[in-house]
Amino acid sequence: MSYIITTLGNLIQQSAFFGLTWGNYLMIAVALVFLYLAIKKGYEPLLLVPISFGMLLVNLYPDIMLSIEDSNNGIGGLLHYFYLLDEWSILPSLIFLGVGAMTDFGPLIANPKSFLLGAAAQLGIFVAYILAIFMGFPDKAAAAISIIGGADGPTSIFLAGKLGQTKYLGPIAVAAYSYMSLVPIIQPPIMKLFTTEEERKIKMDQLRPVSKLEKILFPIIVTIVVVLILPTTAPLVGMLMLGNLFKESGVVKQLTETASNALMYIVVIILGTSVGATTSAEAFLNLDTLKIVALGLVAFAFGTAGGVWLGKLMCKLSGGKINPLIGSAGVSAVPMAARVSQKVGQEADPSNFLLMHAMGPNVAGVIGTAVAAGAFMAMFGVM
Question: What confidence tens digit (pLDDT) does each residue in 338-348 have?
Fold first, then answer.
Protein backbone atom coordinates (compact mmCIF):
# COMPACT_ATOMS: atom_id res chain seq x y z
CA MET A 1 0.00 0.00 0.00
CA SER A 2 2.80 2.43 0.89
CA TYR A 3 4.41 1.69 -2.49
CA ILE A 4 1.17 2.60 -4.28
CA ILE A 5 0.76 5.79 -2.25
CA THR A 6 4.37 6.80 -2.91
CA THR A 7 3.99 6.11 -6.64
CA LEU A 8 0.77 8.10 -6.85
CA GLY A 9 2.38 10.93 -4.90
CA ASN A 10 5.30 11.03 -7.31
CA LEU A 11 2.92 11.09 -10.28
CA ILE A 12 1.00 13.99 -8.79
CA GLN A 13 4.20 15.90 -7.99
CA GLN A 14 5.41 15.39 -11.55
CA SER A 15 2.20 16.74 -13.05
CA ALA A 16 2.17 20.28 -14.48
CA PHE A 17 -0.27 21.59 -11.86
CA PHE A 18 2.47 22.08 -9.26
CA GLY A 19 4.89 23.85 -11.59
CA LEU A 20 2.70 26.33 -13.42
CA THR A 21 2.40 29.98 -12.44
CA TRP A 22 -0.46 32.41 -12.99
CA GLY A 23 1.52 33.69 -15.95
CA ASN A 24 1.52 30.25 -17.54
CA TYR A 25 -2.23 30.02 -17.16
CA LEU A 26 -2.62 33.48 -18.71
CA MET A 27 -0.49 32.50 -21.71
CA ILE A 28 -2.46 29.25 -22.06
CA ALA A 29 -5.62 31.37 -22.24
CA VAL A 30 -4.00 33.59 -24.91
CA ALA A 31 -3.03 30.47 -26.87
CA LEU A 32 -6.62 29.24 -26.76
CA VAL A 33 -7.87 32.62 -28.01
CA PHE A 34 -5.39 32.48 -30.91
CA LEU A 35 -6.56 28.95 -31.74
CA TYR A 36 -10.15 30.21 -31.75
CA LEU A 37 -9.27 33.05 -34.12
CA ALA A 38 -7.41 30.67 -36.42
CA ILE A 39 -9.94 27.83 -36.48
CA LYS A 40 -13.28 29.61 -36.02
CA LYS A 41 -12.54 32.94 -37.69
CA GLY A 42 -10.04 31.69 -40.26
CA TYR A 43 -7.38 34.34 -39.48
CA GLU A 44 -4.25 32.97 -41.22
CA PRO A 45 -4.73 29.45 -39.77
CA LEU A 46 -1.55 28.13 -41.44
CA LEU A 47 0.40 30.49 -39.20
CA LEU A 48 -1.73 30.90 -36.11
CA VAL A 49 -2.46 27.21 -35.46
CA PRO A 50 1.21 26.13 -35.09
CA ILE A 51 2.18 29.38 -33.31
CA SER A 52 -0.63 29.15 -30.76
CA PHE A 53 -0.04 25.44 -30.21
CA GLY A 54 3.66 26.10 -29.59
CA MET A 55 2.57 28.76 -27.09
CA LEU A 56 0.30 26.22 -25.42
CA LEU A 57 3.02 23.55 -25.22
CA VAL A 58 5.73 25.75 -23.73
CA ASN A 59 3.45 27.04 -21.01
CA LEU A 60 2.27 23.56 -20.11
CA TYR A 61 5.76 22.05 -20.27
CA PRO A 62 8.52 24.73 -20.26
CA ASP A 63 11.28 22.13 -20.68
CA ILE A 64 10.16 21.56 -24.27
CA MET A 65 12.29 24.67 -24.98
CA LEU A 66 15.12 23.67 -22.61
CA SER A 67 18.48 24.66 -24.10
CA ILE A 68 21.34 22.20 -24.37
CA GLU A 69 23.45 24.31 -21.99
CA ASP A 70 20.79 24.17 -19.27
CA SER A 71 20.14 20.46 -19.63
CA ASN A 72 21.54 17.95 -17.12
CA ASN A 73 22.08 15.26 -19.76
CA GLY A 74 23.19 17.43 -22.67
CA ILE A 75 19.91 16.96 -24.54
CA GLY A 76 17.72 19.98 -25.17
CA GLY A 77 13.95 20.15 -25.55
CA LEU A 78 12.38 19.28 -28.91
CA LEU A 79 11.32 22.80 -29.81
CA HIS A 80 14.72 24.20 -28.81
CA TYR A 81 16.20 22.44 -31.83
CA PHE A 82 13.46 23.87 -34.03
CA TYR A 83 14.20 27.31 -32.60
CA LEU A 84 17.90 27.06 -33.47
CA LEU A 85 16.87 26.95 -37.13
CA ASP A 86 15.15 30.32 -36.58
CA GLU A 87 18.22 31.79 -34.89
CA TRP A 88 20.46 30.59 -37.71
CA SER A 89 18.14 32.27 -40.27
CA ILE A 90 17.54 28.95 -42.05
CA LEU A 91 13.76 28.75 -41.72
CA PRO A 92 13.02 32.40 -42.72
CA SER A 93 15.12 31.94 -45.85
CA LEU A 94 13.32 28.70 -46.75
CA ILE A 95 9.97 30.43 -46.24
CA PHE A 96 11.07 33.03 -48.82
CA LEU A 97 11.97 30.22 -51.22
CA GLY A 98 8.42 28.89 -50.96
CA VAL A 99 6.87 32.36 -51.23
CA GLY A 100 8.88 33.01 -54.39
CA ALA A 101 7.69 29.74 -55.92
CA MET A 102 4.06 30.74 -55.29
CA THR A 103 4.31 34.41 -56.32
CA ASP A 104 3.46 35.97 -59.66
CA PHE A 105 5.55 39.11 -60.14
CA GLY A 106 3.64 39.88 -63.35
CA PRO A 107 1.54 42.75 -61.88
CA LEU A 108 4.73 44.38 -60.55
CA ILE A 109 6.53 43.99 -63.90
CA ALA A 110 3.50 45.35 -65.76
CA ASN A 111 3.32 48.39 -63.50
CA PRO A 112 6.82 49.27 -62.18
CA LYS A 113 5.37 52.25 -60.32
CA SER A 114 4.17 49.66 -57.82
CA PHE A 115 7.73 49.59 -56.49
CA LEU A 116 7.17 53.13 -55.18
CA LEU A 117 4.03 52.08 -53.32
CA GLY A 118 5.86 49.10 -51.82
CA ALA A 119 8.62 51.45 -50.69
CA ALA A 120 6.17 53.97 -49.22
CA ALA A 121 4.58 51.26 -47.10
CA GLN A 122 7.93 50.79 -45.36
CA LEU A 123 7.33 54.14 -43.63
CA GLY A 124 6.04 52.28 -40.59
CA ILE A 125 9.38 50.54 -40.15
CA PHE A 126 11.32 53.76 -39.78
CA VAL A 127 8.67 55.44 -37.64
CA ALA A 128 8.74 52.44 -35.28
CA TYR A 129 12.56 52.50 -35.22
CA ILE A 130 12.61 56.12 -34.04
CA LEU A 131 9.86 55.50 -31.47
CA ALA A 132 11.63 52.40 -30.14
CA ILE A 133 14.79 54.44 -29.58
CA PHE A 134 12.77 57.02 -27.64
CA MET A 135 11.19 54.23 -25.57
CA GLY A 136 14.62 53.10 -24.40
CA PHE A 137 15.41 50.14 -26.64
CA PRO A 138 19.03 49.77 -27.84
CA ASP A 139 19.69 50.57 -31.51
CA LYS A 140 19.79 46.97 -32.71
CA ALA A 141 16.73 45.97 -30.71
CA ALA A 142 14.85 48.99 -32.11
CA ALA A 143 15.77 47.95 -35.66
CA ALA A 144 14.63 44.35 -35.07
CA ILE A 145 11.34 45.54 -33.56
CA SER A 146 10.64 48.05 -36.33
CA ILE A 147 10.52 45.39 -39.07
CA ILE A 148 7.14 44.34 -37.65
CA GLY A 149 5.84 47.34 -39.62
CA GLY A 150 6.44 45.43 -42.83
CA ALA A 151 3.98 42.73 -41.70
CA ASP A 152 6.59 40.15 -42.63
CA GLY A 153 7.20 37.46 -40.02
CA PRO A 154 10.16 35.69 -41.67
CA THR A 155 12.06 38.95 -42.18
CA SER A 156 11.39 39.96 -38.56
CA ILE A 157 12.84 36.65 -37.35
CA PHE A 158 15.76 36.90 -39.79
CA LEU A 159 16.77 40.40 -38.69
CA ALA A 160 16.37 39.69 -34.97
CA GLY A 161 18.70 36.71 -35.34
CA LYS A 162 21.25 38.58 -37.45
CA LEU A 163 21.36 41.51 -35.02
CA GLY A 164 21.72 39.20 -32.03
CA GLN A 165 18.37 40.23 -30.53
CA THR A 166 17.14 36.73 -29.72
CA LYS A 167 15.99 38.07 -26.36
CA TYR A 168 13.20 39.87 -28.21
CA LEU A 169 12.69 37.34 -31.01
CA GLY A 170 9.59 35.73 -29.47
CA PRO A 171 7.55 38.92 -28.93
CA ILE A 172 8.70 40.32 -32.30
CA ALA A 173 7.72 37.20 -34.22
CA VAL A 174 4.39 36.75 -32.45
CA ALA A 175 3.52 40.43 -32.97
CA ALA A 176 4.50 40.29 -36.65
CA TYR A 177 2.51 37.13 -37.36
CA SER A 178 -0.45 38.34 -35.30
CA TYR A 179 -0.68 41.59 -37.24
CA MET A 180 -0.33 39.65 -40.50
CA SER A 181 -3.32 37.58 -39.41
CA LEU A 182 -5.31 40.67 -38.41
CA VAL A 183 -4.75 42.56 -41.68
CA PRO A 184 -8.49 42.37 -42.57
CA ILE A 185 -9.37 44.03 -39.26
CA ILE A 186 -6.58 46.61 -38.88
CA GLN A 187 -6.22 47.95 -42.42
CA PRO A 188 -9.75 48.90 -43.61
CA PRO A 189 -10.39 51.67 -41.02
CA ILE A 190 -7.04 53.28 -41.88
CA MET A 191 -7.69 52.98 -45.61
CA LYS A 192 -11.13 54.57 -45.29
CA LEU A 193 -9.86 57.31 -43.00
CA PHE A 194 -7.39 58.63 -45.58
CA THR A 195 -9.42 58.16 -48.77
CA THR A 196 -12.66 59.61 -50.07
CA GLU A 197 -15.59 57.64 -51.43
CA GLU A 198 -14.80 58.92 -54.91
CA GLU A 199 -11.17 57.76 -54.66
CA ARG A 200 -12.20 54.30 -53.50
CA LYS A 201 -14.50 53.99 -56.54
CA ILE A 202 -11.71 54.65 -59.06
CA LYS A 203 -11.42 51.86 -61.63
CA MET A 204 -7.96 51.20 -63.01
CA ASP A 205 -7.06 50.22 -66.56
CA GLN A 206 -6.27 46.58 -67.21
CA LEU A 207 -2.58 45.70 -66.82
CA ARG A 208 -0.59 44.93 -69.94
CA PRO A 209 0.35 41.30 -70.64
CA VAL A 210 3.80 40.30 -69.37
CA SER A 211 5.96 38.03 -71.51
CA LYS A 212 7.58 34.86 -70.25
CA LEU A 213 11.02 36.34 -70.97
CA GLU A 214 10.28 39.30 -68.71
CA LYS A 215 9.17 36.98 -65.92
CA ILE A 216 12.36 34.89 -66.25
CA LEU A 217 14.67 37.91 -66.35
CA PHE A 218 13.00 39.68 -63.42
CA PRO A 219 14.25 37.44 -60.55
CA ILE A 220 17.74 37.34 -62.05
CA ILE A 221 18.00 41.11 -62.47
CA VAL A 222 16.50 41.89 -59.06
CA THR A 223 18.92 39.49 -57.36
CA ILE A 224 21.94 41.03 -59.08
CA VAL A 225 20.92 44.65 -58.42
CA VAL A 226 19.72 44.24 -54.81
CA VAL A 227 22.53 41.95 -53.66
CA LEU A 228 25.18 44.17 -55.26
CA ILE A 229 23.83 47.14 -53.29
CA LEU A 230 23.01 45.27 -50.07
CA PRO A 231 24.87 41.92 -49.97
CA THR A 232 23.34 41.02 -46.60
CA THR A 233 19.92 40.64 -48.26
CA ALA A 234 21.16 37.64 -50.26
CA PRO A 235 19.63 34.96 -47.98
CA LEU A 236 16.14 36.48 -48.23
CA VAL A 237 16.05 38.14 -51.64
CA GLY A 238 18.14 35.35 -53.17
CA MET A 239 15.81 32.61 -51.94
CA LEU A 240 12.71 34.61 -52.90
CA MET A 241 13.98 35.08 -56.44
CA LEU A 242 15.27 31.51 -56.73
CA GLY A 243 11.81 30.20 -55.87
CA ASN A 244 10.29 32.55 -58.43
CA LEU A 245 12.80 31.45 -61.08
CA PHE A 246 11.79 27.84 -60.40
CA LYS A 247 8.19 28.87 -61.16
CA GLU A 248 8.74 31.06 -64.19
CA SER A 249 11.43 29.04 -65.96
CA GLY A 250 8.99 26.19 -66.50
CA VAL A 251 11.77 23.59 -66.62
CA VAL A 252 11.87 22.52 -62.97
CA LYS A 253 8.24 21.75 -62.23
CA GLN A 254 9.17 19.25 -59.51
CA LEU A 255 11.27 21.84 -57.65
CA THR A 256 8.49 24.41 -57.94
CA GLU A 257 5.92 22.01 -56.52
CA THR A 258 8.23 20.92 -53.69
CA ALA A 259 9.20 24.48 -52.72
CA SER A 260 5.64 25.80 -52.81
CA ASN A 261 3.95 22.81 -51.18
CA ALA A 262 5.75 20.10 -49.20
CA LEU A 263 8.82 22.12 -48.18
CA MET A 264 6.81 25.26 -47.47
CA TYR A 265 4.36 23.49 -45.20
CA ILE A 266 7.07 21.58 -43.33
CA VAL A 267 8.94 24.83 -42.69
CA VAL A 268 5.75 26.60 -41.56
CA ILE A 269 5.09 23.82 -39.00
CA ILE A 270 8.62 23.98 -37.58
CA LEU A 271 8.87 27.77 -37.64
CA GLY A 272 5.38 28.35 -36.27
CA THR A 273 5.65 25.98 -33.32
CA SER A 274 9.15 27.19 -32.41
CA VAL A 275 8.07 30.84 -32.57
CA GLY A 276 5.05 30.07 -30.40
CA ALA A 277 7.32 28.23 -27.96
CA THR A 278 9.32 31.41 -27.31
CA THR A 279 6.30 32.85 -25.52
CA SER A 280 6.72 31.27 -22.12
CA ALA A 281 5.19 33.35 -19.36
CA GLU A 282 8.63 34.07 -17.94
CA ALA A 283 9.95 35.47 -21.21
CA PHE A 284 6.78 37.06 -22.56
CA LEU A 285 4.97 38.74 -19.68
CA ASN A 286 6.99 41.89 -19.15
CA LEU A 287 6.87 45.59 -19.99
CA ASP A 288 9.19 45.24 -23.00
CA THR A 289 6.76 42.81 -24.63
CA LEU A 290 3.88 45.27 -24.23
CA LYS A 291 6.05 47.98 -25.77
CA ILE A 292 6.93 45.73 -28.71
CA VAL A 293 3.29 44.84 -29.35
CA ALA A 294 2.33 48.53 -29.22
CA LEU A 295 5.21 49.57 -31.47
CA GLY A 296 4.26 46.84 -33.93
CA LEU A 297 0.72 48.16 -34.17
CA VAL A 298 1.96 51.72 -34.68
CA ALA A 299 4.44 50.53 -37.32
CA PHE A 300 1.79 48.55 -39.16
CA ALA A 301 -0.64 51.48 -39.09
CA PHE A 302 1.96 53.92 -40.46
CA GLY A 303 3.01 51.38 -43.10
CA THR A 304 -0.59 51.10 -44.30
CA ALA A 305 -1.04 54.88 -44.20
CA GLY A 306 2.26 55.52 -45.99
CA GLY A 307 1.19 53.38 -48.92
CA VAL A 308 -2.22 55.07 -49.09
CA TRP A 309 -0.69 58.55 -48.88
CA LEU A 310 1.62 57.91 -51.81
CA GLY A 311 -1.31 56.31 -53.62
CA LYS A 312 -3.28 59.53 -53.20
CA LEU A 313 -0.37 61.57 -54.56
CA MET A 314 -0.02 59.24 -57.54
CA CYS A 315 -3.78 59.46 -58.05
CA LYS A 316 -3.59 63.25 -58.38
CA LEU A 317 -0.49 63.16 -60.60
CA SER A 318 -2.11 60.59 -62.90
CA GLY A 319 -5.33 62.54 -63.23
CA GLY A 320 -7.35 60.09 -61.17
CA LYS A 321 -6.19 56.90 -62.87
CA ILE A 322 -4.73 55.23 -59.77
CA ASN A 323 -6.89 54.05 -56.89
CA PRO A 324 -5.09 54.98 -53.61
CA LEU A 325 -6.37 51.80 -51.95
CA ILE A 326 -3.75 49.69 -53.71
CA GLY A 327 -1.04 51.54 -51.75
CA SER A 328 -2.13 49.84 -48.53
CA ALA A 329 -1.10 46.51 -50.07
CA GLY A 330 2.53 47.69 -49.95
CA VAL A 331 2.93 45.94 -46.62
CA SER A 332 4.25 42.48 -47.36
CA ALA A 333 1.40 40.34 -46.03
CA VAL A 334 0.99 38.44 -49.31
CA PRO A 335 -1.70 38.04 -50.61
CA MET A 336 -3.93 39.07 -47.70
CA ALA A 337 -3.19 42.81 -48.00
CA ALA A 338 -4.02 42.77 -51.73
CA ARG A 339 -7.31 41.02 -50.97
CA VAL A 340 -8.16 43.71 -48.42
CA SER A 341 -7.57 46.41 -51.07
CA GLN A 342 -9.94 44.50 -53.34
CA LYS A 343 -12.56 44.12 -50.60
CA VAL A 344 -12.57 47.79 -49.57
CA GLY A 345 -12.70 48.87 -53.22
CA GLN A 346 -15.70 46.62 -53.88
CA GLU A 347 -17.50 47.99 -50.84
CA ALA A 348 -17.42 51.38 -52.58
CA ASP A 349 -18.26 49.93 -56.01
CA PRO A 350 -19.17 46.23 -56.36
CA SER A 351 -17.98 46.25 -59.98
CA ASN A 352 -14.48 47.45 -59.06
CA PHE A 353 -11.64 44.94 -59.43
CA LEU A 354 -8.36 45.99 -57.81
CA LEU A 355 -6.80 42.65 -56.85
CA MET A 356 -4.23 42.36 -59.65
CA HIS A 357 -3.33 46.05 -59.36
CA ALA A 358 -2.84 45.62 -55.59
CA MET A 359 -0.64 42.55 -56.09
CA GLY A 360 2.06 44.79 -57.59
CA PRO A 361 2.62 46.86 -54.42
CA ASN A 362 2.06 43.72 -52.33
CA VAL A 363 4.97 41.75 -53.81
CA ALA A 364 7.02 44.95 -53.99
CA GLY A 365 6.51 45.21 -50.23
CA VAL A 366 8.10 41.78 -49.73
CA ILE A 367 11.22 42.98 -51.52
CA GLY A 368 11.05 46.35 -49.75
CA THR A 369 10.96 44.83 -46.27
CA ALA A 370 13.94 42.60 -47.09
CA VAL A 371 15.82 45.65 -48.38
CA ALA A 372 14.96 47.57 -45.19
CA ALA A 373 16.35 44.67 -43.14
CA GLY A 374 19.50 44.72 -45.27
CA ALA A 375 19.84 48.47 -44.72
CA PHE A 376 19.73 47.98 -40.95
CA MET A 377 22.35 45.22 -41.14
CA ALA A 378 24.57 47.48 -43.23
CA MET A 379 24.04 50.31 -40.75
CA PHE A 380 25.28 48.15 -37.87
CA GLY A 381 28.04 46.44 -39.86
CA VAL A 382 26.42 43.00 -39.60
CA MET A 383 27.25 40.55 -42.39
Answer: 999 999 999 99
